[in-house]
Structures are given as C-alpha cells and as structure tokens.
Design a protein that fits this description.
The complex is a heterodimer of chains A (270) and B (264). Chain A is α/β, with parallel strands linked by helices and 270 residues long. Chain A has 2 domains: 136 residues, Periplasmic binding protein-like II (D-Maltodextrin-Binding Protein, domain 2); 107 residues, 3-Layer(aba) Sandwich (D-Maltodextrin-Binding Protein, domain 2), CATH 3.40.190. Chain A is 35% helix and 26% strand. In chain A, the strands form 3 sheets. In chain A, strands 5-10-6-9-7-8 form a 6-stranded mixed β-sheet, with helices on both faces. Chain B is an all-alpha fold and 264 residues long. Classes of the chains: A alpha/beta (270), B mainly alpha (264). The interface between A and B is large, with 39 and 33 residues.
C-alpha cells in the first residue's frame, strides 16, 4: 500500500484541471457523473435487486433532479477518488467524504450535506476500555486511508472545524478493511484488536449483525461529510453548494436521512 | 506421461478427488454459512443478469476481461518474442526493455499507473480499457518469455534440415518450428492464463462490476463475508477447471505423434 501513497504523492505535483471545465461538461452533456462507494451501508451499497442504493445514492438522485440533468453513477475504488486529479472522469463525489488538510489540497469541498458522530466500538466482554482515554497503547482498527486513522495519530484537522482533543497517546492504529476489522474485533477483546473507531452508522449496522460488539458512549467527535469535487472549477462548486442548500432548505435531505438512518443527520445539531 | 497398466487408475483418481472434496465440504459446513443468501446472490455473481448500467457483470465480465486480455496478450507476446529472437539490436532492446519493465513491477502498481497516472499526461482511458491494457501488457511480457523458450527448445537440426530442403522462411517458421514449439508452450501458457483469470479481479479497483467486486460489495453490505468470499472462490475455481480442460485438449492435439499420451 505504501507504493500507492507514493504514487498519489507524484500525482500531487502534476498540473490542475482547466477552470470551469466541469460545469461546461455537465451543461453540454446533460449528465452529471457521481462517484459512489458500494461497500458502505447504509450510505452506499448494492441492494437485493442488484441496484445501487443508500443515503448517498438518494442524495445524488435528488441533486441531479434539482439540477435538471441525468445521473450517472460510477464505483471506482476509494484510493482512486481521494487521489484527486479526476481529469474529467467524474463530476462530483457524494460519497460521505470528510475533508482533511491533505484531501483539501487535491479536492474541492463546496458544501456539507450531513454530519455523523464518530464512536468507539469494543467487544461486549471488554473491561479495560471504558472511554477513549483508555486507548493508550491499545490496538485500534480503522479504515485504511480514513480520517479515523489520522484521529488516532493526533493529526486530524478538519478544515472549518475547531481543533479536536486527543486524550490518548501511543495508540497502535491498525488500518485495514473496516469489515475485516469488525470481524477481528468480534473474535474477542484483545485477540486481534482492542477497539475500532468508526462512524456511528457503520457501528450500528455492525452491532446489529454482530451481537458480540457494543458501542461505547459518548460520541468522540462529529464528523462532517461534504460533497467533493475536482479542484479548480469555482463556478461548478458554487452550483453544487447552491443545489445542496436548496435540497436542505426544502427538507429533501432530512427526508432521505430519516428513510435510511431513522434520524435526521443533515440538520446541524452540534 | 506414461501408460497405465492397471485399468483402475481413473477410478482411483476420481475416488481420491471425491474424498478430498468431501473433506473440504465438511470443513466449509462447519462454518455455518447462510446458504440461502448465497443462493439469492448467485445469479448476479455468475453474471446471469445484467448490471444496472446494462453491461455484463460478475463471472461473465470476469471471463470477458480474461479472454480479451489473453487475446491481446498473445498478440503482444508474439511480437515481443520475435523481437527477443531478432538479430536487430533495436528490436531486441525494445523487446527486452518492455519485458523487463512489466515483469519487474507489480501488476497492482501497473493497473493504478495506467488508470490514475496516464490521465495526467492527457490520456484518459475508461475503466475497462485501462484494465485490458494493464492485463495484456503484464501477461504479454510473461507469455513472450514462454514463447521464446518454446521456440529455442526446438532442436537446431530441424531448422537446418528445412533450410537444406530449400523451404522458404515462412514455411520453416509456421510449418516446422511453430508446431513443435507450441507443444512446449501450451502447458506454461495455460498456467499463465489460469493465473490471469484470478488477477482479473484487480480491475475491480476501477469500479468494474466483475466477480470479485460484486462479492466484496455484497459481503460488506450484508456482513456475510465468509459466504461471499467462498462463493467467489468456488466460481473462480470452477472457471479454472474449465480452462484446464481446454488446455488438456490442446496439449493432446499438439502432442500427437510425439509423447505417449494416455487417453484418460
């Protein structure tokens, strides 16, 4: 995986896209191409009828409808998306992305569309870990390349958010596949992992199907999810921001949120 | 390759296979899998239905990607092997440089470079094209070496005898060297293609809905990880077995008149 990051670093130093290109393309073709992660229920997944479904998909559909264009969804790997420099392949990413200082260098983040709590998941027989402060020296699973990974090594800065507290030190972060991490934690406290940092919705879905896991109170911090765009088209960014603001104002987003999550995460509650 | 004297060889082989398969099935049974879930997803995994965008998916896409890449890789390999055997320094250098570059770097890196780095210099390939190009170039390099070794293994006397008979060059290549070389090339080439079948799962990185992509997506949507992994593994295995049968037939055809091939 290190090779991958070297590659991404190389891509960082190449010239950016032409300004205005995205909006022009969307107007010309009448199609908006959105990126979706299909392995992130209930935000994005493949349903029983083999169709893409979830919160992010419905938001993308509402977005395209409001803009009066057709929606096309593509499903590349997370690494391809966060490396930026899409070169016109995709127009936007309604894919539950949280901006970090690094991501903000290669991607535009015009608008927040929901915020979700980050929580700590442990095995139900866990006795040593009662709060996030007990994580020091423990093995904690996080999604590879996720913002949680940065949280554990004290380097998470969310642009536009107040600085976070990190009440732990020397945590052994175990980056990997979130599903595999959850299965590893379910083996027992400390067998392969001591805890997992994840989004509340992921954690909820996991604890419902894996009874041996539990979510610790309280919430660690709130993580905003923003629409991501290719950097360099200010006009497109404004269009995206205005469209999402309109969907928020008329209650469309809140309705989609209640449908998939049973609560409204699109209205700022922090 | 030897002639079996007792006629029970085939039966014993089948019995052993059956025993091993039974053991494997018993082990898998112990995992308490949700068979109904596998059943529900099987038509999609196999690619019996089209993806939402109307394109083929699942095993059908895996087969398509592998077959198309095999075809292109064979073309690339023939040209490269010719360059490798050529006395022209430029052709030799081009062929060896290419083969060394693509055999000496990981396929995963090649896939990502072709998909992510090429657009930076203005070449924006689609997901499917990127995958086909990466697999073809990678396996072309390996296959070129296989072809070269096969050609070099044909005794020099064969060519000399053909030259002495005054046969034209292309007749020597296609009627004397090629049939003898093919017999030696087919087994290792078959092994390469079986491995390509599984490496084709790397195109899932670009969002193609092939077998591995669907299995992973279903697994994470439902938390039925073992079910989907095992189902995908079984389908890959069955595809490989199909391929081995084809390879065996080809071996038999090109081995006519040389080895003692038992008809099992």
């Amino acid at each position: 995986m290190r090779v991958l990051w070297v590659l991404l670093l190389v891509l960082l130093y190449l010239p950016p896209a032409v300004a205005g290109a995205t909006l022009d393309r969307v107007r010309r073709t009448g199609i908006v191409t959105d990126v979706l992660i299909t392995q992130y229920p209930p935000f994005g997944f493949i349903d029983a009828e083999n169709q893409v479904a979830g919160f992010d998909v419905d938001v993308a559909r509402a977005f395209a409808a409001r803009l009066g264009v057709r929606l096309k969804i593509e499903t590349p790997s997370w690494e391809s998306i966060v490396s930026g420099r899409w070169q016109g392949r995709w127009d936007l990413c309604i894919c539950s992305m949280t901006p970090t200082a690094e991501r903000a260098q290669v991607l535009g983040f015009p608008v927040e569309y929901y915020a979700s709590p980050t929580v700590l998941v442990v095995h139900k027989d866990e006795t040593r870990i009662k709060s996030v402060a007990d994580l020091s020296g423990k093995r904690v699973g996080v999604g590879m390349g996720s913002s949680f990974e940065k949280y554990l090594d004290h380097s998470l800065r969310i642009p536009g958010e107040p600085p976070l507290a990190f009440p732990f030190h020397d945590v052994i972060a175990v980056p990997g596949d979130e599903t595999i991490n959850l299965r590893n934690l379910a083996l027992g406290p400390g067998v392969r992992l001591d805890a997992i940092v994840a989004s509340l919705s992921t954690a909820k879905a996991a604890t419902e199907s894996m009874r041996s896991l539990k979510i610790l109170e309280p919430v660690l911090y709130w993580e905003p999810s923003l629409v991501a765009t290719e950097k360099g088209d200010a006009e497109w960014d404004r269009t995206v921001a205005n469209t999402v603001a309109a969907l928020k104002a008329d209650g469309t987003l809140a309705q989609i949120s209640r449908k998939w999550l049973g609560m409204d995460v699109t209205t700022d509650v922090r | 390759m030897f002639v079996e004297d007792s006629g029970r060889f085939r039966e014993k082989v089948w019995l052993t296979w059956l025993g091993l398969a039974g053991l494997l099935a018993w082990g898998v049974h112990g995992l308490h899998l949700d068979i109904a879930y596998i059943g529900a997803k099987l038509p999609f995994l196999l690619g019996l239905k089209l993806a939402p965008d109307g394109f083929i998916q699942g095993a059908a896409l895996t087969i398509f990607v592998s077959a198309a890449s095999m075809l292109c890789a064979s073309g690339v390999a023939l040209v490269t092997a010719a360059g490798r055997l050529s006395s022209n320094p430029l052709a030799f250098a081009l062929a060896t440089f290419y083969a060394s570059l693509f055999r000496g770097t990981p396929l995963l890196v090649q896939v990502l470079i072709i998909y992510l780095a090429l657009p930076q210099i203005g070449i924006v390939l689609g997901a499917l094209t990127s995958g086909l190009v990466a697999l073809s170039l990678n396996y072309g390099a390996y296959l070129a070496e296989t072809i070269r070794s096969g050609v070099m293994a044909v005794p020099a006397g064969q060519r000399e005898a053909a030259l002495a008979l005054g046969l034209p060059r292309w007749v020597i290549t296609w009627k004397v060297i090629a049939p003898q070389a093919l017999r030696l090339i087919i087994p290792p080439a078959g092994a390469l293609f079986v491995s390509m079948l599984k490496d084709s799962s790397l195109v899932s990185l670009m969002g193609l809905w092939e077998l591995n992509f669907l299995a992973q997506s279903y697994a994470r949507s439902s938390f039925r990880y073992m079910e989907m992994l095992l189902a995908a593994a079984l389908i890959y295995w069955i595809l490989s077995v199909g391929f081995e049968v084809v390879q065996f037939r080809l071996e038999r055809r090109f081995g006519r008149g040389i080895a003692v091939v038992t008809d099992r």
